[in-house]
Amino acid sequence: MGTVITFKRPDGKDASGYLANTARGNAPGVVVIQEWWGLSDQIKGLCDRFALAGFDALAPDLYKGKVVPYHDMDAANREMNSLDFMDATTQTVRGAAQYLARNSAKVGLTGFCLGGAVTIIGATKIPELAAGVVFYGIPPEQAAKPADVKIPLQAHFANKDDWCTPELVNGFEKAMKAAGKSLELFRYDAEHAFVNEQRQAVHDREAAELAWGRATEFFRKHLG
């Protein structure tokens, strides 16, 4: 449904990503950020779903063509740890937001796992954004303080998550409330990465569909 495009980062360098356009013109945009596996077919499929829901969706390729197979967690961890999160967010992700905002549309940001953390960093660093939806990812507080979040956030977390743990989620929620920030937070009795239908060991269809409905409704409210 979508296509691979090249777009400019604020520093003038080229970046690439997967773009799925909705049928109508002047639609709001959603930047979609990958899991630690890379820009997989599953993430491209979510862009297609956003397009069917009425949003232009662009997933920037933060690993520059590298996609890690689902069984190789060590390789995924290496790729994630070698990623410059600040450069990726303030340049590549912001460039994607600027691309979608070029027809003066409102733009949101969403991401999964690694991309969830990037979404929170983006909520503090990318002025083009109007809203963000986080899926099971929280960055270290030195990367993005809740007090610096500039947009309404919705967040989806898994109670059986051993990476983005319930304790971490509680701390994030508490810090956001203390800072007086707008946060809708949902917890699911599911595993980390429950939205990823390509990973049958963790996918929870009921939780995924509930979260998807909440996310698209949130973006319609804030992006139009």
Automatic annotation (TrEMBL):
Domain Dienelactone hydrolase: 17-222
InterPro entries in the cross-refs: AB_hydrolase_fold (IPR029058), Dienelactn_hydro (IPR002925), Dienelactone_hydrolase-like (IPR051049)
Name of the featured protein: Carboxymethylenebutenolidase
Organism: Bradyrhizobium iriomotense
